[in-house]
Write a structure and sequence with these properties.
The structure is a single chain. It contains no helices and 11 strands. It is mainly β. The strands form 2 sheets. Strands 2, 4, 5, 6, 9, 10 and 11 form a 7-stranded mixed beta sheet that branches.
Length: 123
């Protein structure tokens, strides 16, 4: 089992920045690919970004490419999502997820999920 806890959400301004963190605990979480999803009110959960277990590659949805950066610190079992140039449409609950590295990063299937953290961007 892997437990995931997100933090860093809150209120941001359009054009501003926020940084989300996801702390992992449990079974050797450093060997898991990690991803970020988001779900806006009335919409389906959307895949935002992902990073390979060793940090060697990453994936971004077109909607965030060039604005968001995913990274990880395996020594601290933590991943990050740096969100720059925020837009009101980035408002959503952001979820961290983990899985064994058996899929391409663009695959949306994940095994473990955090509880989510709210991000609200005002215009």
């Amino acid at each position: 089992q892997v437990q995931l806890v997100e933090s860093g959400g809150g209120l941001g301004q359009a054009g501003g920045s926020l940084r989300l963190s996801c702390a992992a605990s449990g079974r050797t979480s450093s060997r898991y690919d990690m991803g970020w999803f988001r779900q806006a009110p009335g919409k389906e959960r959307a895949y935002v970004a992902a990073i390979r277990w060793n940090g060697g590659s990453s994936y971004y949805a077109n909607s965030v490419k060039g604005r968001f950066t995913i990274s990880r610190d395996n020594a601290k079992n933590t991943i990050f999502l740096q969100m720059n140039s925020l837009k009101p449409e980035d408002t959503a609950v952001y979820y961290c997820a983990a899985r064994l590295p058996i899929y391409g990063l663009e695959n949306r299937q994940y095994t473990y999920w955090g509880q989510g953290t709210q991000v609200t961007v005002s215009s």
